[in-house]
TrEMBL record:
Its main location: membrane. It is found in: Membrane. SUPFAM superfamilies: GST C-terminal domain-like. Belongs to the chloride channel CLIC family. This is CLIC N-terminal domain-containing protein. Keywords: Membrane, Transmembrane, Transmembrane helix. GO terms for cellular component: apical plasma membrane; cytoplasm. Residues 8-77 form the CLIC N-terminal domain. It comes from Clastoptera arizonana. GO terms for molecular function: chloride channel activity. It is a single-pass membrane protein.
Amino acid sequence: MSNKTSEKITIFFKAGYDGKCFGACYQSQRVLMLAKLKLNEHIIPSFKTIAVNISRPPESFKKLGLRLRVPALYMDASPDIEPVDVPDDIVTVLESQYPGGLLKNDLVNEAEAATSNFFSKFCYFLRGIAKDYFQLETELITINTHLNKISDKYPSESKLFLCGPKLSLVDCEVLPKLHQVRVALAGIKDYKIPTNLVYLWRYLYSAYSEPAFVKSCPPDSEILLHWLDTEHPGSEKYSQRQQQILAASSGKEAQYSFSIPVTAKQILIE
């Protein structure tokens, strides 16, 4: 257990459209997920989280001289550590100051290789640069194949992640992206991850069973609003769609796509 219990840590994350909930920033979720994993393992002390609307940042954010981007990390009791607003650097600081709590083994390079291209293919498909989903689906199959190998390596484990039965740093980077791929494509392109990619669905099922992932995840509405805004800027059609999403979600309990297809679930659980 860490003995740095008096240290004050603040993590700034992207605010949602309501200014309070988690916005659809996969880097923010990556950092929050990592910190929550370490907190759950009693490695890091309790930390403060502050939502940031970059167009109207709070005073606590502005006074640190940060460059109007999130996520950002500030460690109040460590004057030798400057505020950090580069995601990779935040991960490095958290790992160096509070090591442990995640799986580390020799499968990291293989996991990184298997997941290196799916997000760019998703962006190409969503933007219409790719005329169909075949390139994206090829990358999803690559991830599924890798996860199949990991499952065979740990046959008695119920949870399945990229390097084994526990979350790793690679998972903290990949899962927020993969979940946004799932939600955005289903809501915008009417594309659903094939149910026959059972190891990929088992991977998502494992993530949805992890409090660190669930408690740092943006709601579906935020993911849809973000990708409609990002991938179709200035489009009247998508502005209307965004208004519909905002109206449908206003004053209602946030919705999250944490279920998996029945056919995939049956294969995974039996």
